[in-house]
Design brief:
By secondary structure, the protein is an alpha+beta fold. It has helices at 3-17, 68-88, 93-107, 117-120, 133-152; strands spanning 30-37, 44-51, 57-65. The chain has five helices and three strands.
Amino acid sequence: MSGLDGLYQELILDHSKHPHGTPMAEAEGRTATSHQRNPICGDEIELRVRLHDDGTVRDVTFTGAGCSISQASASMLASLVDDIIDEEGSLTADAARERIERFREALRSRGTVALDEETFGDAAALSGVSKFTARVKCAMLAWVALEDTLARA
């Protein structure tokens, strides 16, 4: 295992043991919630998006159970949303959808497309998951839940 692979593995384990975006926020104001389950391995995520009146994302929180990849991915997503809001002031639904699509593209690439750390923060550590097709659904679960909540909102 290369040093970078080891660092990424450590980052994934840290996010799964000490998740960001938990506990799930109360449903107040404009919210949407999505429950997603991976029937192959049993991972589950319930993700809630709270929105400002103008439709921009206020925050993303979740509760879940499953493997370290699914839980770390949800934590990394919540952390990324917080970082984007802190740095840019807001996150529109369109910008969130675009990141979800880029994340999906990288994870379906079988290792040919890497996630950019500047754009995806800690979630860039999940790039290696794309080489293991059985684990892609685990990493995608929270991102699919976010996509679903935005479609409902």
